[in-house]
Amino acid sequence: MLRASEETKQLSAMLGTELSTWPKVTTRPMFGLRGFYRGKKIFAALPVTRTIKNPNSFIFRIEPLPVKLLERARTEPRIDTENAVPSANGFPSC
Fold first, then answer.
1. Strands, E, within the chain: which ranges?
2. How does pLDDT run along the chain (94 residues), one tens digit per residue?
């Protein structure tokens, strides 16, 4: 895991503050990241001290991810969709 950039730490803190105001959202520390959950399902991991892939990365889970949105995301070089896999109902998930 890589060290988070200072800019990413600041953006992460601001986004985390917003996500914490959402109903039924809880957080847990996880390996230098802060995991955001709704119930028992994780939907985001924001850097606190560490990141995955590069010093400026965030992790979001969008399930099911609509096919058109996945196609659009794949054309954006700043978005890594390599973990997107089709779900049982035919919709991709990330």
1. 2-3, 25-30, 33-38, 41-47, 50-51, 59-60, 85-86, 92-93
2. 888 889 989 999 999 999 999 999 999 998 899 999 998 999 999 999 988 878 888 888 877 788 898 898 888 887 787 764 444 444 344 4
